[in-house]
Amino acid sequence: MSTLVIVESPTKARTIRNYLPSGYKVEASMGHVRDLPQSASEIPAAVKGEKWAQLGVNVDADFEPVYVVPKDKKKIVTQLKDALKDVDELILATDEDREGESISWHLYQLLKPKVPTKRMVFHEITQDAIKKALKNCRNIDEQLVRAQETRRILDRLVGYTLSPLLWKKIAWGLSAGRVQSVAVRLLVTKERQRRAFHEGTYWDLKASLEKDKTSFAAQLVALGGTKIANGGDFDAATGQIVAGRNVLLLNEEQAVALKERLTGKTWNVTDIEERPVTRKPAPPFTTSTLQQESNRKLRLSARDTMRIAQNLYEQGYITYMRTDSVHLSDQAIAAARSCVEKLYGQQYLSPQPRQYTTKSKGAQEAHEAIRPAGSTFRTPQETGLGGRELAVYDLIWKRTVACQMADSRQTQISVQLQVEDAGFRSSGKRIEFPGYLRAYVEGSDDPEAALEDQEVILPSLKVGDRPNCTELEAVGHETQPPARYTEATLVKTLESEGIGRPSTYASIIGTIIDKGYAQLVNNALIPTFTAFAVTDLLEKHFPDIVDPSFTSKMEQTLDDIATGEAKWLPYLQQFYLGDKGLETLVKEQESQIDATKARTVELENLAAKVRIGKYGPYIEVENGDGVVTASIPKDLTPADLDPKQVEVLLRQKTTGPDQVGRHPETGEPIYVKIGAYGPYVQLGDKSEENPKPKQASLPKGITPENVTLEMAVGLLALPRTLGTHPVTGSKIQASLGRFGPYIVHDQGKEGKDYRSLKAADNVLTITLERALELLSEPKKGRSSTNSKSKAALRELGIHPEDEEPVNIYDGPYGPYIKHGKTNASIPEGESVENITLATALELLAAKASTAKSTRKTTKSTTSKSKSTASKSTAKSSTTATKKKAAEG
């Protein structure tokens, strides 16, 4: 008897193949094989004329979806149908969540098998798990499929109904989404809070003390019996002390005077309090907490974390990575406890096995937390993994093992000291027994927060002791605006509010960035002016769509549909076609939305208008001579746009740029200007004879006010030739680029080798010796778009036709295969490590044939009549427009 097993990816197929008996053939569907139409060209001819055709959902016939096989999946479907002809049984073994259930259902509908068909699910890819799953196959869960289909239809209705409205009223190419728009609103709300924030200033004293040759620090907390004000006592809306707070606010003069008065006086220990504290380990990872911790500790995006976790799962290293559950199986608990005993000893084992329960009602995507796979856990060193895969596995391994370890026992120490009428406090922490901290310490959203395993040692002190004060300084503080969201904190907020599902957070955050609603700067998600305009429009005209509580209730209804507690069709009818349904609202509101107002962002305390234009945001102000406009630089955030910035931008347009002097050699004027990409210097005036004057961006941290003539001349002289490389004889230059200052080793045909300068390096003064030092260091990250000048992730071998190398490189959209001028993306779900030369040659050949097909189509199109060409152009435009509509 022969059996065909279908999974989603080649990696998963290879891993499962190892655990199945002979007679089992495993093929990959490469993800979804069928979906709603993504463009006008995919809409079937039979329904093209229907008014609902662009939605891909027949809203007039019980929301019946129109499913199509995308062009790039037709070959795969044909191959699966061929594979099915020679077998006696079909097993659908896609992932165990709603998405996986949906893929299995679509495969069944498409393949129409005439042989017995089973649904196999498993939580990890190990021999035991696969054997057990084979014995416990079931039918496709229709309720799960219906819940996923309802979610898909709902996302399509929201995205394809609201997005075209945004194109008309604000800017082409924008998108709205059921979860995406709420997430964008969260970012905008935080940025509004930063705009409304008023800074407060306060001073206190910090003392360095010594007892028995051990130094410790103490901070002023009270004066004359009154508490000293700190950051928590300020009202963020006024920058003043909160009304009713009985605190003493010191200014600089008072703090310095107090320091002088206390210098040389006697210090006394007046009270010591020791308080025992027990810390318990965090539960094992869910999808959400893995994304959060990976972002904090490894600085990985949610998208990268899920891609890496998917690879680890499909290779059999971890259990399924889309889960809301913190539950561990008995097998996992036993494996974790065995690791603890073996690596750390019996005393580090928790007295009883720890079992965690999931608080979220929606925790139904899987039955277990993310953990190392198998009945015994491989240590990170035993896996043979490397790079980011090793880092993520290490995180998962440590978190799982730590959850079965003993509590950490600590002692918090608080020492009160008095010097004249001033009260100081010194805090310490002593770890009596590290417990689980030996294996794992949970990260913190605050980069300055101390991790829990860092002891703060105080000397042995008792009441009446008189420590020696070695230094006393007055310290000024400024209150800080609310911190912007990082990916970690945004994921945490979305989950706590019940918005969306953790399995979708990675794609949602990716869409927000890709669509230009946010920039990721130093791990912070900064909303753009476009995000403000879109959020303003949706808040005013479609408030429910961006209301977290409304979206959370929607999510709950979708969960209820999955369990059979709610009916899908009545819900969709009410949401879309009801008296207050989305279709009705859009028809009512469209005529009421003034496009000029929709493209205008109103900011508090700003007289200038901010508008969204074709080429980005700009400011507009009326003066005596009419309307003056100026582009807003891309690095100027909504929270930082103030009247002073507006004045600088407008002055450049009305009175011309500031001149820092004249070039000592040419005599031409040098200006400091501000453009779309920030401030820069320019040599000479733009004219017919000189249409492109030389320009140079200012280095990060340098403001226009700080530019000197010497600095400007140096910047305009870039690139600087530092000398030649002692080995290659090729020149080495220093220059400034889009991503900051760098050096480049130009080796001609061999390519260019780039290195970014470190914070302490100055592009205007760096020496050849320092440049050679930097070039000798291993290259980090994606430092160049030219694959010749960066190391390959893997060298697969030589192409049999031309003997040119076939390598894998890391690109801005993930790893890809390169041969000559042909680049082929690595299929989703496939890992770099598992790509063979044979697989690479297939992917390159497919890419080359697609390119040839495209060229032929283009050539034939150009030979048609003007009338046909005109229709084709219109159709092409419609296709592109449809592709822009975003979902979810």
TrEMBL record:
Root EC class: isomerase
Reaction equation(s) it catalyzes: ATP-independent breakage of single-stranded DNA, followed by passage and rejoining
EC numbers on record: 5.6.2.1
Site (Interaction with DNA) location in chain: H32, R151, R152, D155, Y160, W167, R322
Cited Gene3D superfamilies: 3.40.50.140, Topoisomerase I, domain 2, Topoisomerase I, domain 3, Topoisomerase I, domain 4
Residues of the Toprim domain: 2-126
Stretches for region Disordered: 277-296, 682-701, 848-888
Protein function: Releases the supercoiling and torsional tension of DNA, which is introduced during the DNA replication and transcription, by transiently cleaving and rejoining one strand of the DNA duplex. Introduces a single-strand break via transesterification at a target site in duplex DNA. The scissile phosphodiester is attacked by the catalytic tyrosine of the enzyme, resulting in the formation of a DNA-(5'-phosphotyrosyl)-enzyme intermediate and the expulsion of a 3'-OH DNA strand. The free DNA strand then undergoes passage around the unbroken strand, thus removing DNA supercoils.
Record-stated family: Belongs to the type IA topoisomerase family.
Name of this protein: DNA topoisomerase 1
Species: Nostoc paludosum FACHB-159
Encoding gene, per UniProt annotation: topA
